[in-house]
Amino acid sequence: xxxxxxxxxxxxxxxxxxxxxxxxxxxxxxxxxxxxxxxxxxxxxxxxxxxxxxxxxxxxxxxxxxxxxxxxxxxxxxxxxxxxxxxxxxxxxxxxxxxxxxxxxxxxxxxxxxxxxxxxxxxxxxxxxxxxxxxxxxxxxxxxxxxxxxxxxxxxxxxxxxxxxxxxxxxxxxxxxxx
Length: 179
Description:
Blueprint: E1 10-14, E2 17-21, H1 23-28, H2 38-51, H3 60-69, H4 89-107, H5 116-127, H6 139-155, H7 158-163
Antiparallel strand pairs: 1-2
Helix pairs in contact: 2-3, 2-6
């Protein structure tokens, strides 16, 4: 079982054991997803990067994957507060599958291989709920959830606040940064 620790690091499976790493460090260490398939992880990383630049390197797909593996009580994903019934894995799987299906039907390529213009057009249609025949979760909700996940991993840390030149003013300062 995977747990979030009190120091802002997450437990990731690496080799024969578990290590505490930030999502960014887990990505750099080559941690493989445990819940999402490699294609789903690749699509989530590409979509997150399009929505919030830098989120791929910050480990958005591994963050979501790790959070899908923990108990609901330990889950830190925004989706749990949006009226979506758990488990949340099907929400992500069907949304990521639908993104790829749309990319392939429009452009003959999976989402992660689209040009900037193609990806931006698809995301614009997704955010405005204009993808007719979409076979996934509600388009606007899927867009909001993935964008929030990307924002959380990119800017939801002391380091992220610093990138925005915003003073970090937590009521209770965590004992460590994610990194």
